[in-house]
Specification:
Blueprint (H helix, E strand, L loop, with lengths): L1 H13 L5 H13 L3 H11 L8 H17 L3 H9 L8 H10 L1
Helix pairs in contact: 1-2, 2-3, 2-4, 3-4, 4-5
């Protein structure tokens, strides 16, 4: 139940558990309910909390953003995402880490 999942994750965030996986759970819930625009805004808003995360988590967040942008038919933002946070802005070692994990 996506509504319950979102409510539960938001309650956890309200209690200080705003870790990447909880933020990710909210994005999944929003996306599964067809709220792509809101999900995209959520992911961008919480991007700064990922600075200390693994390459996987950073790119996984951006992958979810890409899915939202595809739904919204926003090609310009998809191109910017690919050239920026999803791939282009990654350091060489982060790109290697990504490929090693996939």
């Amino acid at each position: 139940d996506s509504e319950l999942a979102e409510k539960t994750a938001m309650a956890a965030i309200g209690k200080g558990f705003d870790d990447p996986w909880t933020l990710h759970a909210v994005a999944h819930a929003m996306y599964s309910m067809g709220r792509s625009a809101e999900c995209a805004e959520w992911l961008v808003q919480h991007r700064p909390k990922l600075t200390e995360c693994s390459t996987f988590m950073k790119t996984h967040f951006e992958f979810h953003l890409a899915l939202c942008l595809i739904d919204l038919e926003n090609g310009d933002r998809i191109a910017d995402l690919l050239q920026g946070p999803l791939w282009g802005a990654l350091r060489h070692d982060e790109q290697q880490d990504y490929w090693a994990a996939t």
